[in-house]
Amino acid sequence: MTPEAVARADELIARAEAAYLGLAIGDALGATVEFLTAREIRSRYGIHREICGGGWLRLKPGQVTDDTTMSLALGASILAGGGAVKPLSCAHAFDAWMRAKPIDIGNTVRRNLITFRGSGNPCAPPSTNDAGNGAAMRVLPVALCTLGCDEAAVRGAVRAQAHVTHHNAASDAASEFLALAVQDFVRGEPLRNVYRRRLLPLLDARPEFRYQGRRRENPSGWIVETMQAVLQALMETDGFEACLVDVTNRGGDADTTGAIAGMLAGAHYGVEAIPARWLRGLDPLVREKCRAQARALAAGAAGGATG
Ligand SMILES: [Mg+2]
């Protein structure tokens, strides 16, 4: 590789790491206030801006939830399979994750993994009800391992992992957008390009994701409300910390909005923008796993992405 290509690959891997750290930080930050309303957060914390554990799960400071641990389980299975995203491997990875008794698990994830145990079919039946944010929240390892792929292959890999538990058009649209947007940011695309190339077409195709106008507070686990909150926080703030404070202080499904906003903002603003106190505050084992996995997934794809 030329020195320029080496520098580009280093930059790409650094942004991939920032995306993964952002996911875990947003999860840990948001979990403290999950299921509180924005009003309850204001009365309890003023503005919530520290990774301090607690919340309904009684977390240790820096502990993460299913958003991060499912992503890590998925990423590990992709790496074990040589970088390929295979539905059956994803389903086995999620099933093993569930057997290890995670501290929390979404209803749709649990139901469709139990169905998988019986059927052996890693693709859940299509359902208009399965429009939760549980497939979108864990899409990052797929985005990183397909950095060198064309758009159709990225979308196919995203759906392969998503459909294990969420076979739903709104979930698919969100998950595919998130993977492609993270890839754009990891490659160094500015926000205005991602807005024009990715977000405007998404909002045309799925007008329910439009976030302009009224502030979306207390977003539920419905992917539509999750996307409204995440997109509004990303587009209407100007830094990593501001974006995560904005989205988690809306309350509701704050660990997942935090995780999704964190992966986008991490990739966009880069690792230098992540506050040192948040990096230090994250569970050290989780922090190192996120770093190592981001590096391994992106390195496998980096040649194609930067060449
Ligand atoms: Mg969670």
Describe the secondary structure blueprint for this structure.
Layout: H1 3-31, H2 38-45, H3 66-80, H4 87-99, H5 107-119, H6 140-145, H7 151-162, H8 169-186, H9 191-205, H10 223-235, H11 240-248, H12 254-269, H13 276-281, H14 284-306
Helix pairs in contact: 1-11, 1-12, 1-14, 3-4, 3-14, 4-5, 7-8, 8-9, 8-12, 10-11, 10-12, 11-12
This protein binds magnesium ion.
Structural overview:
This protein is mainly α. The protein has a single domain (3-306), classed as ADP-ribosylglycohydrolase fold, CATH 1.10.4080.10. The chain is built from 14 helices and no strands. It has helices spanning 3-31, 38-45, 66-80, 87-99, 107-119, 140-145, 151-162, 169-186, 191-205, 223-235, 240-248, 254-269, 276-281, 284-306. Helix 1 (3-31) packs antiparallel against helix 12. It is globular and about 50 Å long. The mean pLDDT is 96. Magnesium ion is lined by residues 65-67, 104, 255-256.
Helix content: 55-70%
Number of helices: 14
The helix-strand sequence is HHHHHHHHHHHHHH
Oligomer: single chain
Rg, nearest Å: 18 Å
Question: Which architecture does the CATH hierarchy give at level 2?
Answer: Orthogonal Bundle
Number of strands: 0
Give the CATH level 1 class: Mainly Alpha
As for the number of domains, it is 1
Provide a quick synopsis of the model:
The protein has helices spanning 3-31, 38-45, 66-80, 87-99, 107-119, 140-145, 151-162, 169-186, 191-205, 223-235, 240-248, 254-269, 276-281, 284-306. It has 307 residues and is mainly α.
